[in-house]
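stage 2 :: seqdesign
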């Protein structure tokens, strides 16, 4: 009986984590789209003939910030995905254990 209760709790947590993962994934896609637009503007600003040293410094600084944000987004999403996959693994183990004991 305890194993069934534990499994039910795990399934409930798994559904919550799945929803959180999907929401985070959508948010990351949206933010990446905004960052891509920013990158396009930044690149376009550097393609004129009137670019000066200050523009190059600003370009490098802004590109570094954009890339840092992208890396942070990917890291957060991978962390959430890793936790979700661990919950999936745990649920599968519990499910198999319950099947074997019945």
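stage 2 :: out
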């Amino acid at each position: 009986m305890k194993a069934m209760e534990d499994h039910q709790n795990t399934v409930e947590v798994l559904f919550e984590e799945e929803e959180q993962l999907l929401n985070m994934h959508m948010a990351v896609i949206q933010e990446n789209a905004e960052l891509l637009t920013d990158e396009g503007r930044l690149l376009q600003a550097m393609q004129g003939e009137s670019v000066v040293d200050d523009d190059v410094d600003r370009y490098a600084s802004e590109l570094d910030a954009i890339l840092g944000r992208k890396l942070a987004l990917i890291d957060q999403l991978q962390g959430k995905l890793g936790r979700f996959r661990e919950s999936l693994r745990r649920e599968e183990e519990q499910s198999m254990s319950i099947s074997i004991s019945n």
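stage 3 :: structure notes
- The two ends are 11 Å apart (CA to CA).
- Residues 2-101 form one domain.
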